[in-house]
Amino acid sequence: MDEEYERRLRHRLGLLKEHLAAGQLYLPHDDELEASLLAIRAGADGKVDLSTVDGRVRALALAIEASEHVNALKSSISLREIQDVYFQFVERNFGPLYRGMLKEKATPAEMAAAISRDPEAVVRFVKGIPGFMSDIVELWSSTYEIAHFHATDLQGLKTVFGGEIFPEGTKNVASSCGVYVDTIVLPEPFIRSRMFIESGPDDQRVYWLIKHALSVLQYKDLALTDLETPIAVIIPDTIWFDERDLDYVQVQAERDLNSHLQLLFGRSFHDADEVTSFLKRFHAPDDVIAALKDKSRLLFEVGAPEPLAIQLRDYINEWTRDRGIKHAGQAVLTAIHGRMMQANDLLVRSQRIGGPPLIEAPTSWRYLNWKLEYTAREFSPDESLNLHLIRGLQSAAAAEMAWLGNVPVKTLIEMRQTGALAELRGVLSKGVAEMVEARPDNFFRTGDKIVDNIQSAFDEHKNKLTQLTGKKWRFAGVELASCVVHGAIEIASACGVPLVSLVNSAMDQVIDVPKFRDIPGKFKSLKDEGRALARSPVGLLFQESNRKK
Prior knowledge:
Helix content: 55-70%
Largest sheet: 4 strands, parallel
Shape: globular
Strand order of the largest sheet: 3-2-1-4
Oligomer: single chain
Number of domains: 4
């Protein structure tokens, strides 16, 4: 037996013994495992005779060692500390630009495009790229594993963003999904874009750098606000740091690639070499298109109006030509392989962190569904319900309820502080589970149902407002209910009525008006009712919908 392995095994067995003695190990009843533990004997030297330790015990001891390692890593630094260091670093470098963007009401892409068109600015930013990226890589190289462990341990409902490098900066993705899920796990964009930022034309390098920096800072408050569970966290994909993860994703992607190409061209392929040999015959985009059996599966962008041959040509010119890929068949292989890598990476992250995928890009959504089709992957009932709710909220925010995509960060935070999320989930998901069970693949119907649920909740809220304002309590010609609904705190100051006019009014002679001695209690009751209604989960959402009109 290898000496190093023996040393590690004895260490693991020591940990197992400590956990058993301390009552820290909770195992389901297993007669075979119990027999294996009882069979362990000590040798003449007083040490454990390793020949009496079977595979079951060795596996259990290995699991305990791994758990100890994870706990030691997590205790070394918290997720909040990692996020704080990360956002401080980005803000220190790009804070002035971000504040300028907010002042001008611009988007990250607009700011990045403007700066990348300025030759002098490009030169200045390019000089700083090596140092900036070196620090980013150093930070995540030492913390990515810990960050993932912490993200996995987060309580509540999570969703994992994918399908794009990072959410588009035109809106905060948490605005729509944050009214349903507890935490949105976002990918670290600088690591994902490292190839574009560290090489290529200087203006493009600066564009990607600035766009991602300004987009990241849009999530700072959501990640760092003092809440038990953060609304958003940013952590890098493990495939950029762990070759085992990369190898696994590549193997899965190649299988899906093969399945996709078989349907695309209507023929089977035994291995990657056969695929490559087949695609070599297609030099021009028209050659590829002529050979297709299912043209719907050669997808570059959902809804693109150009003919497929032109889309393929544009893809080559924009994405693969600079990498030396001008051959149409090879470009198709590159495009589909990249999409399948993306889909598999998202599913791996989703499964590990414990939350359904969150995809905004329609094309990425289509490829994810194809990947699920090829592997017959199914979500559990809870996963499927949450996936439908998240997808439905995105659809609503992109269409008839556009305001839902612009719920302010402060409102999202207030919803968490007031405990509104659980009630909102109940409102949004009403009747959706039954629809998902009947048609798990019909996201359009469940999306419509979610919109109906929101509208019904708003209608009910407006009815309550009407009932509240309909209480005709008037003093000196002023209706108190109208003051309450507008958030008044004091009768005299908020309603604009001098206190003396209240005192001198002959209220005892007015029908249906409370006696003066009842004013404090009556008004407090009405005021509290109005305040509770305004700060209710649906009330908070209702206010945001009205602000956007």
